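Weekly modeling sync, notes
Attendees: AB, CL, MP (scribe)

Item 1: holo prediction request
CL wants a bound-state model with shikimate-3-phosphate before deciding which constructs to order. AB pointed out that an apo prediction alone won't tell us much about the pocket. Agreed to run with the ligand included and paste results into these notes for async review.

Input as submitted:
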Amino acid sequence: MDTNIVLIGFMGTGKSTIARHLGAMFAMDVIEMDQVIAQREGMSIPDIFEIHGEQYFRDAETDLLIEMQSKKNVVISCGGGTPLRERNVAAMKENGKVVLLDARPETIYERVKDDHSRPLIEKNKNIPFIAGLMEERRGRYTAVADIIIQTDDKSGQQICEELIRQLGSQT
Ligand code: S3P
């Protein structure tokens, strides 16, 4: 790959799974932002939100993205809220193609319902809440994306093939 790939999208759109696939397919390093932040802080994402607050977590995301700007041959799997900050977007665009993974709220709900690692939806894990938050973010996500991929009812392999096809047609 002659460009880094930056995966964005709402929680549960499959960013981590697709990052792993791409990493294996193209021998790219995978940077899972949530995981790196949790490791560095020595605590889980819910604990970071609980103890330090959301702004602290958002600052850690910005710092990490800026650090990643200079990397080559990487797939960066962002947190769902990473593109909401303008300066994060500049850092993403600096050194990669931004790929938005999208899915229906119903699909998201099925994917996240048994997971307890997402503080922003933990107390509101239902389709209307997810749909509302997705709607709030949709404009931002689509404005930032170079490529958009619908992931409902598709395998990881199919999503990667579509991504590669779209990347090819842009270069
Ligand atoms: C968030 C998404 C999460 C994580 C944090 C906040 C968000 O990442 O960064 O809980 O604001 O959408 P995933 O999209 O990987 O679940």
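Recorded for review: The longest strand covers residues 96-102.
Action items: CL to compare against the apo run; MP to circulate these notes.
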